[in-house]
Amino acid sequence: MTAIETEAGTLQKGSAVGQSVPRKEDGRLVQGQGIFFDDVKRKDMGYLHFVRSPYAHATIESIDVSAALEMPGVYGTLTGDEVAILTDPFFQIAAPPGGHVKDYALAVGKVRYLGEPVVAVVAETRELARTAAEYVMIEYEPLDVLVDARAALAEGAAVLHEDCGGNLSYSGVWEWGDVDAAFAEADHVVSIGELHFDRFNSTPLECDGALVEYNRGTGQWTMYTNNQFPGFAAIMMGPAMRVGLDKLRIVTQDIGGGFGNKITSHPQLVACCLLARKLKRAIQWTEWRTEFHQSMSHGNERWFEGTEVAVKADGTLLGFRTKAIDDAGAYLRYEPLGGVIWSQVAAGMYKWRNIRLEFTQAMTNKAPVSPNRGYSRMQQLWFTERVIDIVAQTLDFDPVEIRRLNFVQPEDMPYETPNGCVYDSGDYPRAMDMALELIGASDIETRRAEAASRGKLLGLGIGSTLDSGTNNFGQSQLINPELQFSGNNEVATVKLDIFGEVVVTLGTTPQGQGHETTAAQVVADILHCDVDTVNVRAGHDSYWNSHAGFSGTYASQFAVTGLGAVKGAADMLAGQMLKLASMVFQCPEEALELADGFARIKDNHEAALPFMALGAIPNANNAGFPDDPPTMNCRYVYRPPFEVPDKETKFGNLTLTYATQIHACIVEIDPETGVTEVVDYAAVDDCGVRINPQIVEGQVMGATAHAIGAALWESFVYDEDGNLLTPNFYDYHVPHTLDMPPLKTGAFESPSPFTPLGTKGMGEGGGGGIHCICSGIQDALRAAGGAIVTDSHNPYHRVWEMLSHPERSRETIEVTSR
Amino acid sequence: MSTTSTTRTISVEINGTSYERDVPASLLLVHFLRDDLDLTGTHVGCDTGSCGACTVQLSGEAIKSCCMLAVQADGSSITTVEGLASDEGELTPLQQSFHEHHALQCGYCTPGMLMSATALLEKNPRPTEHEVKVALQGNICRCTGYWNIIEAVVAVGEGGAR
User: Which residues of A519-534 are buried (b: 16+ CB within 10 A; e: fewer)?
Assistant: First the structure.
C-alpha cells in the first residue's frame, strides 16, 4: 500500500491539526467497551418485534392480536389503527402530489412494500417477541404490484397512495444556460437511449434500533438510539406525536456505521415511544438484518432516458439534456429531496454551461429510499461520467484527454456552475494525473497485451467525482416553495471545568469518523494544550446545549460545520481565559498568552495561571471580583454563509464546499465467464485542509469499498411480485477481505476559501468507484465488440451479456454529426 | 415461556470466570453473552451467520456465537473481546496495532475481527497478507474496506508479537 502525502505548502498549522493523531475512540472500541444502543438495558424492559407485511401491495382486511396477547410473557401489541388515533401522519417534505402521502409509524389500512411494519409485539424476551409475532393473524387482499418506476408512471397503473391520485411524487424541469443554442452550435450530438443507476445501500453492520423510556411524570421520552440525524428525527416525530420537541430526548453514543441509512428511523422510534407509554415499561427494539434489508433506507434507483449531448469537433462538451426518473420506493421518508440534491453537482466536474434535466420521481412497491453515502449526487456524477466515456468511445476521443479538456480548471476557482453552485477550490487535472500515475497508466498498452496473452480483457477506468458538503437547506424550497428551511448550522460547547478540565460537547452523531479526536485536535491548538487533555464527550444528547435544528452527522459536513462550531467555541473560551487572567494579573489581555496549559504573561513566564485556577475561579472561588468573571462555558453556533436559492430559476449556491476524488482502476475481465477482477486501484482525494490525514484516508478507503461493492456485487433485487431476493448478507454480497483489490491512495490539499479551517466535508466519495469500474469495464470490452456500459451495477452475468451481445447496448447510442 | 422452549442449566467459563445459568434451549450463545451476562462487546450484525461480528473463541477456536445455542456451549471455555486486554487495560499487540493502523472506524465489527485474528495469530504467528485475508473472510467490515485491518494483523506478525 502506498500513501502519498503531499505537503500543504502555505498552510499554517498548529502542533495537533494536520497530524495523524491516533483516535481517542479506539481504546474503548478495541476492548468491547463501546456503548451501542443495543447494549443499553433497563429492568423489566420489553423486547419489540415487528410483524411485517409478506406482500408488496395489499389491503389489510383484518388484524387479530388476541392469540399473541394470550401468550405468557407477552406484554402487549400496537396496531396501525391505534397509531392512526394516537398520532398524525408524518410531515411531508413534498408539495402535492407527493405531499398528500399519509405515512404513519405502522401500516394503516394497506401495505405498500414487503417488510412494512404492520403490528408491533412486545414481550419478555427477544425470542418470545419473535414467536408471538407469528401468532398475530392478519388477512390481506393482494393488489397489483409495481416494482418499476417507469411502469408506475404509466397510464392505468395501480396506485399506492390514493390521496396522491397517482404514483408521481415530484416532477420538475431544471434548465440553465441556453440549451437549444448549444445543440445548434454542436458539431456532434450523441444520443444515449437509457442509463440505469441501480438500487443498493451501504448496509451498516449495526442495524437500527433503540431503547426507549417514557417518564410519566414529565411526559418525556428518552431514546437511546443510533439515529444519525436527531435534528431531523425530532422535527418529524414531535408534530406526529403532538408533543413539543423538548419531550423527545435523543441520545446516541457509539453507532455501528450509518452512511446516511440511519436518518429515517423515525417511524419505528414513534412505535417504540407509543409502546413505552402504553405498556409502562422501557421498550427495546433491535432490527434484524433481514428487516433492515427489506425495509430501511435503500439508495435511489434512477433512470436517465433520451439523453442528448452537444459536443464540439475538438471534444468540448457544450451541454446535455436528459430525463431522470427516480424510484422513491413506497413512502417519502426523506424524499423528494433527492429531486434537488443531485443539482449540487448538476455539471459534475466539467465546464458544460447548458443543461436541461427533467426530473420525475415515482413511488413503487419497494422499500422507501433514504440518503445513502453520496446521496443523489452519486447518481448524477455517475451519469456525467458515463456520458463522458460514452462520448469518448463513440466519437473516438481519449477518455483521459476529453476529461482534461473539459474539467473545470484550477485557475477557474472559485467556479460558479450554470446553476449558481460555487466550486470553492481544487485541481482536477492534477488529481487525475496523480491517480493515473499511481496505477501505472502509462504502461497500459503493455499490460493490455500481457493480459490478452492470458486470455483476459484489460481495461483502464477513471471515476471523477465531487463530494459536495455542507448543505444549504434552502435548496429544499426548490422542490417545495412552501418549506421554511434554509441555511445550515451546527453547535459545539467548550468549557473549562472546576479542576481545569477542557470539556467539549458536539451536536454531531459520529459513526466512526473520529469526531472526538479531530475536535480535540482543533481545541488543543487553540487553547495551547495537549490533545490528550481535551475531553470530548462521546456521542450526542439532544438535552445537551449542543443540539440545533440541523444537528447530526450526514452529508459530508463535520469538518466544516462541526469543527467550525468547535473552533468558534474554543476561540471564545481562549478569549475568556485571557480575560480572566488579565483580571487576576491586572494587566491588558494583549500582554498575555496561552501556552502549555497555562495563561501567562508573555514577558514573564513565571506569572502563570494553570487551567485549574482559571476553571475554579468562576465556578467555585469567585468572591472579591469587581466585575463578573467570564463563565468559562462557551457555546458557538456555526452558520455557513448562504442565501435562499432563487425558486424561479433554480439558481443559487447549494453547498459550501466541494471535495475532489478521482479514482482510477485497472480491471481484467474473463471473457469465458464475464467475471470482472479489479487488479489495480487508486483513489486520490483533495478535501482541503486535513485535520487528521489518517482519518481522511480511512474515509476514502471506506467509500471506495462501498463503491466497488455496488459496482460489482451489491444490489437490492426484486422479483415482479415485489419480493426482495437479496434480504441478507448471504444473498446480498458485500465485499469481503478476499474481494478487495490492492489500493493506493494519494492526497493533496486545496484549502477551501470559504470555511473556518480551510477544510471541506468529505467521506462520501461520490461513488467514485462505481463510475471508475463502469469506465474500466467499458474500456476492457472495446476489444470484444465494444459494448457500452449503461448500468451502474455490472455483475458477471451482465458483463457476460455485454460480451455476448455487444450490439444491444451499442444500438442504444446514436451520433448525429454535421 | 413454555410455548417457546424448555430451560436447561449450563456451566461455562468465560474470560476466566465461571458462570452457571438457567437458559431457554432456544437462546443463542451470542444473546446469552450479551443479554444474560452483559458481555456486550460481542456484537450481532446479521441473521445468517455471514458477518462475524459475534465471533468469540470457544475452546481455542474462533466461532460465530450466533450460530450456536447457549446450551451447546455447556462445559466449554470461552474468550470474548472483553478477555483480550489485561484487567489494567493493557492492550494486546493486536489491539494496539488496530489502534495505530486505523483499522477501525465505527468499531462494531472490531471485536469479531480481533477474535478471528487472535485465533489466527495463535496458530500462525507470522501470517502473510493472503493468510490474513483468508482468516478474516468471514468477518464483514463496512467502514474500512479491510486494507488497514489486514495491514494491522500482518504488522503484529512482523513485529514478532505473540
Answer: bbbbbbbbbbbebeeb
Identify the CATH assignment for A37-143+207-255+263-295 out of 1.10.8.60, 3.40.50.880, 3.40.47.10, 3.90.1170.50: 3.90.1170.50
Nearest chain A Cα distance for residue B8, angstroms: 16
Answer yes or no: are the C-beta atoms of A573 and A527 closer than 8 Å: yes
Q: Do A698 and B143 touch (CB under 8 A)?
A: yes
For the record, the C-alpha cell of A477 comes out as 424550497
3-state secondary structure of B98: helix
Residues of chain B with pLDDT under 70: 1-5, 160-162
* Residue that the C-alpha cell 466515456 belongs to: A389
State the smallest CA–CA distance between residue B155 and chain A in angstroms: 13
Give the model's confidence band at A809: pLDDT under 50 very low, under 70 low, under 90 confident, else very high.
very high
ipTM of the complex as predicted: 0.97
Q: Find residues 573-602 of chain A whose CB sits inside 8 Å of chain B.
A: none
Contacts of B147 (CB under 8 A, 6+ apart): A1, A701, A740, A743
The strand pair at A58-64 and A3-5 is best described as unpaired
Q: How far is the alpha carbon of B134 from chain A, nearest alpha carbon, in Å? A: 7
Interface of A with B in 475-514 (CB under 8 A): 511-514
CATH number of A489-638: 3.30.365.10
Q: Tell me if chain B has a CB within 8 Å of the CB of A288.
A: yes
Is the CB of B39 less than 8 angstroms away from the CB of A30?
A: no
**Over 60: is that where the pLDDT of A11 sits?**
no
Instruction: Chain B: give the shortest CA distance to residue A289, in Å.
Output: 5
Is the omega angle on the peptide bond into residue A756 within 30 degrees of 0, that is, cis? Answer: no
CATH number of domain containing B30: 3.10.20.30
Mean pLDDT for chain A overall = 96
Query: Are A290 and B47 within 8 A, CB to CB?
Result: yes
Chain A residues touching B65 at Cβ < 8 A: none
Residue A7 has pLDDT above 90, yes or no: no
Residue B5 pLDDT:
60
3-state secondary structure A145-171: CCCCHHHHCCCCCCCCCHHHCCCEEEE
Indicate if B32 and B73 belong to the same structural domain: yes
Structural domain harbouring B25: 7-83
**Grid cell locating A38:** 443495543
pLDDT given at position A459: 98
Q: Which CATH number, 3.30.365.10, 3.40.350.10, 3.10.180.10, 1.25.40.10, labels domain A172-201+297-474+644-817?
A: 3.30.365.10
The answer to whether B58 and B52 are in contact (CB under 8 A) is no
* Mean pLDDT to the nearest integer, A613-626: 92
| Residue A256 to residue B43, Cβ atoms within 8 A | yes
Contacts of B159 by beta carbon, 8 Å cutoff, 6+ apart? B93, B97
The confidence score (pLDDT) of residue A4 equals 36
B31 and B73 belong to one structural domain: yes
Cβ of residue B50 closer than 8 Å to a chain A Cβ: yes
- How far apart (Å, rounded) are the C-alpha atoms in residues B161 and B121? 9
Whole-angstrom distance, CA of residue B47 vs CA of residue B67: 9
Q: Model pTM? A: 0.96
Predicted pLDDT of residue B1: 42
> Which residue, among A147, A142, A555, A53, has the nearest Cα to A340 in the 3D structure?
A555
Q: What is the pLDDT of residue A805?
A: 98
Q: Do residues B142 and B119 share a domain?
A: yes
Rounded average pLDDT over A233-259: 97
Contact residues on chain B for A34, CB-CB shorter than 8 A: 41, 107-108
The Cα-based distances of A774 to A676, A696, A734, A789 in angstroms read 11, 25, 18, 6
**Cβ–Cβ contact B74 with A under 8 A:** no
Segment A348-368 shows an average pLDDT of: 98
